[in-house]
Amino acid sequence: MITGLGKSARKATVAVALAMLALTQLAPAHAQSRIKDIADFEGVRDNMLVGYGLVVGLNGTGDDLGDADFTRQSLVAMLERLGINVRDQIEDLESDNIAAVMVTSTLPPFSRQGARIDVSISAIGTAKSLQGGTLLVTPMVGADGEVYAVAQGNLAVGGFSAGGAAETIVKGVPTSARIANGGIVEREIDFNLNSMQDMSVVLRNPDFTTARRVSEAINAYLGEVAARPSDPGTVRLNIPDRYNQNVVALLTDIEQLRVEPDQIARVVIDENTGTIVMGENVRINRVAIAQGNLTIRVTESQQVSQPSPFSQTGTTQTVDRTNVEVDEDQDNQLGIMDGGVSLQELVNGLNSLGVGPRDMITILQAIKTSGALQAEIEVM
């Protein structure tokens, strides 16, 4: 009796081990990413803030009030708010220790009143440097025109400028600065996440296949059909009853699920720098490639022509000599690439022809024109 139970237990253990092994074998071998890294959730987003302010305390590197009327007007308005009337002397105001700036920041999602955020400051006038300046109280508004934060503080400038009459040295950008934790949130954005009955999962790189894989991964985890792709960039998610008033727990579980993002075959080209980026799915049909350039080099030199020794005639003269060289790259040969080659084979084939990045751009565009490149070319 005891022996029989032991055999049953061993058989059950072996069956579980085989099942786990089968699941491991069926798992895709390609690189997978968390949903958290490829998608955003509806309502969980940043908001841009902007404001206009004044920086004071500059050591003679501020705006020229004669050229920057907006700085002069801002200075007058600020002094009047502080109870100082300078309207009658507005034309006599002269100071190069103040600068008009734009203040920008990002309001993180679910920021509460009193929370601090980083702000960036950029000069908009004729200021040469913001080094040593202090930003005065600056309201920061959102896209709806409402004030969501207020910024103030001492500036941290990453660059500097120094020079004299004959030479000037500039490192970095001295007209831009930051204030760490320089903004205080004054208004919250109302958004009740836990009360939502459905929401959208928005893919950062829209794709039909990726959207379906995300929905399948979510449904497999929840054990019900709660997610459906509505378009290549959106997956609609109905909140299950067991997560009612606890959407945060649902999103915490979902964002850790792993899926394999799909991507189209694409070649990205930056002609300004000669940079080429190709995806792993880039394929080409059988094609022959020849690459060569005609180079003509003309060299001018001068030689001195002198008469024979002890000669009574002739004078010493300078004679121009011209040397012309023509290089037709006759050593370059026609290369053949078989159809369906991988990205590595394509790169190796082009490198074997001695093709540089600039010429490779032209070759890839020519292959695309011939219809042999099965990928999309995007020129930046």
From TrEMBL:
The keyword ATP-binding does not apply. Pfam families: FlgI (PF02119). It is found in: Bacterial flagellum basal body. Keywords: Bacterial flagellum, Cell projection, Cilium, Flagellum, Periplasm, Signal. GO terms for cellular component: bacterial-type flagellum basal body, distal rod, P ring; outer membrane-bounded periplasmic space. GO terms for biological process: bacterial-type flagellum-dependent cell motility. The basal body constitutes a major portion of the flagellar organelle and consists of four rings (L,P,S, and M) mounted on a central rod. PANTHER family: FLAGELLAR P-RING PERIPLASMIC PROTEIN FLGI, FLAGELLAR P-RING PROTEIN. This is Flagellar P-ring protein. It comes from Thalassospira profundimaris. The lineage of its organism: Bacteria, Pseudomonadati, Pseudomonadota, Alphaproteobacteria, Rhodospirillales. The gene is flgI.
